[in-house]
Amino acid sequence: MARNVGIVGAGIAGLHLALYLQKHGVDATVITDRPPEDYRDIRLLNTVAHHHVTLAREDYLGVNHWTDPKDHYYYHDHVFNFPQPLSFRGDFSKPSRAVDYRIYLPALMQDFTNRGGKIEYRRIEERDIRPLVARFDLLVVSTGKGPLGQLFTYRPEHTPYSQPQRRLCVGLYTGVRQPDPMNVTLSVSPGHGEMIVIPTITFGGIANALLMENVPGGDMEELATLSYDDNPKHFLKVLLGKLEKHHPTTYDRIDTARFDLAQPQDLLQGGVVPTVRNTVVAFDDGKCAIALGDVHAIVDPMMGQGANVASYAAFVLGEEIVNADALDARLCEKIDLKRQDRVLAASRWTNVMLQPPSEALGMLIGAMSQNQALANEFTENFNYPDRQWDRISTPQRIQAWIERMSAPAEPVRAIA
Predict the structure, then answer these.
(1) Distance separating alpha carbons of residues 193 and 191, to the nearest angstrom
(2) Are residues 130 and 10 located together in one domain of the fold?
(3) Which of 52, 103, 381, 410: CA 20 to 30 A from 236?
């Protein structure tokens, strides 16, 4: 049976879904307001790491164009800048990789159109909603911009905050020394915020994304509003002073003579409110619109989950659409049931990490600094937020995890 799916939005969720449906012979049309040629000169969109589960999906879709092992990173360095600093390393089972989305998204759009896919470039107005619903068998909404995103109401039980919990300042910088092999550094300054250092493929090669998650009212907060354009030297001077004080391990990697934004537009400042929305809107004719990606769940970028769960959810939608007898409310219900555990786990885990650590979480941090296997599993679970939430959602689960990972290995018994 021929299907006709409309996808509004050309982020990772919309494009991974479009490419999946294309691979399986389902007619999909992407609608977005930004053509590929417009990405090169716009301001930094985000800083996104793709973990190995997402890279595997890219391989499946034939869109993994960034395969050089030297451009991947292999472990996390965790640095806690307590009065007595604490640090430890956690290894992935397979490497992760970050690409500037101003490179990544146009490349995937080109892949889709080169294979015969259709992309329409236009804005969606409120008057367009009914014609879009009538035009397609199923409408997938993967952008929160405009009136379509407003169709999906918030789920208050999963949306605990009404304001951003961090004031963000993120940029792509030159002059930051890379370890070999490359890693991501997670640095914590209690009471002031976190910083994640992500080696990223950019227009000029590898640069480091410095994602500063600044606590409102803390000493780092001013970086979320300090202007680079007005006075670049002053911005860099203030930034270097803050890094030396709050994130000294990263500061020690910086060549201050070369330290600068890779491009003037490589800076993003502001904040996000973590939210979860209801995902299905039913119309009188029996057709549905279903939310995907950021329309479904917005997570703070601290734990690097947004793009990875968006890609995961896109594949869930794709699999269910390909195998469905009808693109109706029952299909949307099945999709929600199948994807919600991982999506909600990513949201809950990230929200917990935005708060001061509980006694149990502090105990876990201390245990990971003494137990390499535990630190490795915590790091590997960035691929699997549902597994991570299984481990850390209650003090009892944290205690059980520590005990299990600390137990001596059972001796191998010879069989006579």
Answers:
(1) 6
(2) yes
(3) 103
CATH of the domain at 177: 3.30.9.40
pTM of the model: 0.96
**Domain limit, last residue, from 217, 240, 270:** 270
What secondary structure, in 3-state letters, does the chain show? Answer: CCCEEEEECCCHHHHHHHHHHHHCCCEEEEEECCCHHHCCCCCCCCCCEECHHHHHHHHHHCCCCCCCHHHCEEEEEEEECCCCCEEEEEEEEEEEEEECHHHHHHHHHHHHHHCCCEEEECCCCHHHHHHHHHHCCEEEECCCCHHHHCCCCECHHHCCCCCCCCEEEEEEEECECCCCCEEEEEEEECCCEEEEEEEEEECCEEEEEEEEEECCCCCCHHHHCCCCCCCHHHHHHHHHHHHHHHCHHHHCCECCCCCEECCCCCEEEECCCCEEECCEEECCCCCEEEECHHHCEECCHHHCCHHHHHHHHHHHHHHHHHHCCCCCHHHHHHHHHHHHHHHHHHHHHHHHHCCCCCHHHHHHHHHHCCCHHHHHHHHHHHHCHHHHHHHHCCHHHHHHHHHHHHCCCCCCCCCC
pLDDT for residue 414: 58
Task: Judge contact between 144 and 14, C-beta under 8 A.
Answer: no
d(Cα 127, Cα 132) in Å, to the nearest integer? Answer: 9
Residues in the chain with pLDDT values less than 70: 1, 409-416
CA-closest candidate to residue 152, choices 292, 330, 347? 292
**What digits encode the pLDDT tens for the residues 335-384?**
999 999 999 999 999 999 999 999 999 999 999 999 999 999 999 999 99
For 296-342, write each residue's pLDDT tens digit: 999 999 999 999 999 999 999 999 999 999 999 999 999 999 999 99
